Amino acid sequence: MSGEPQRTLLLWCPDWPVLAAEIVDGVPATDPVVVLHANRVIACSERARAEGIRRGLRRREAQGRCPHLTVVDHDPGRDVRAFEPVVAAVEEVVAGVEVIRPGACATAARGPSRYLGGEEAAAERIVEHVAQSCAVESQAGIADGVFAAGLAAREGRIVVPGGTREFLAARPVEALGRPALADLLRRLGVRTLGEFAALPAGDVLARFGFDGALAHRLAGGRDDRPLAVRQPPADLTVTADYDEPVDRVDAAAFAARMLAERLHERLAGYGLACTRLGIEAVTAHGQELHRVWRHDGLLTAAAIADRVRWQLDGWLSGSNGRGGTRPARPTAGIVRLRLVPDGVLAQAGLQPGLWGETGEERERAHRALSRVQGILGPEAVVTAVLGGGRSPADQVRLVPWGDERAPARPGPPPLPPAGAAPGAASAPVVVPAGGGARRRAGRGRAVAEPPWPGRIPPPAPAVVLPTPLPADVRDAAGEPVVVSARLAVSAAPARLTVGDGRPAEITGWAGPWPVDERWWAPAEARRRARFQVSLADGAALLLAVEGGQWLVEAIYD
After folding, report:
1. Where in the numbering of this chain does the UmuC domain appear (predicted)?
2. What pTM, to 2 d.p., does this model score?
3. Which of 23, 209, 254, 414 is most deeply buried (CB count within 10 A of its CB)?
């Protein structure tokens, strides 16, 4: 706990829950209005008090005293949202403001009083600025400590330095804001804060507990903690204005690099890294363009410049990549460019990448990949992200280097070992020739994911073919193996021929795993069954039969 209390200036807005209802919901605060919580009045307007309504009354009793009463339910979120502009207005005059509760905020009085010419002048300046900026009436109080300053604000009073104990001494114990403790103190004969503060601290702690000891400190003019002021967020946005409209991609790229370096230096000064970048542009005809780029990791100055250049190239040339229609390009050149770091985090909290901790090797690899990406385009360098799905092809999503690595389907499976191919696992399925499945569990920790009916069991194949290869599967008698509609296999698979290759002996197999997708849409319906087979030469394949045709979908490592 702190020693001597700090000289504190507290701004108080009377009947704030009622005023917040007027600001947010349009309830006229000049009418008889009450705010209810748990069926009791917690705040009321001045007109309601004139009708005899007080805090603590039940709803029925309050409406009995004023039949035309307007009742508003308590909403803490509404109170906070409405109070934020008031706090921002105070921060325009003084630095370091702590929000005590919606409707009250405090700051150290020393700085404003020295800068604005005294404590009284500082209080008047803040009250006047809040009234002009937010159209909100408020009162300010100054005393030693937050608790005493709050009581002084209700009277619009400035307590002289060192006079806080005398100011509090005559206050009733109800001023502590602890009804149960105040009732007990009154029954014990203690009616004022001065009488309560005169009690020995050890006896108060033994009789009333820790909360009573805190109240005892407040009654004696000592705060339980110093001010915990909030710091206004730093403005990290960088903007560049151009006298001559920029309508060429090369000129825009040069401007983007200069602005990207400014943004990176500003972020580095605060020890931050950008993970989501907003690019905003304004043309000479007033057209506003906006796009947000996400990034999974550290955005360097070069990476920021590349993304700004790609975006400006798309805007100025009207190109949206391969295929598709060309969007309408702006009718005039760009006169303002703005970079907004929409998502930031401390650099020390970045996840180590593929090449270990953030260091020279990682930066070298990142620069090399970013350079290739800058020459060939954002989709020229891609990495694989694993997700959910029924087939290996559905589980892999290729994302451009530097973009957010989010799976396309819910339920990401365990990550493969470093350096492995997408979906690689430790070993293929090994099954006896009789068809009884015996599969080895893949490496990696289990991850909870949604069920995917028809999904093949782990381990996942190492290579997924972009185009399945036609195959022919026959039994020991040389007859084609057929899978019926009820998933009955005509005979055990014995030989496999892929394309025009030579037949290979099947030493083990498992399946079938059926998949019946989008049966409700005949044009998109697909029905097939999958098998895992191991061959005499040690290879393991994932087969699928669809419409009577056998296909090789993937290869196990």
Report:
1. 32-157
2. 0.48
3. 23
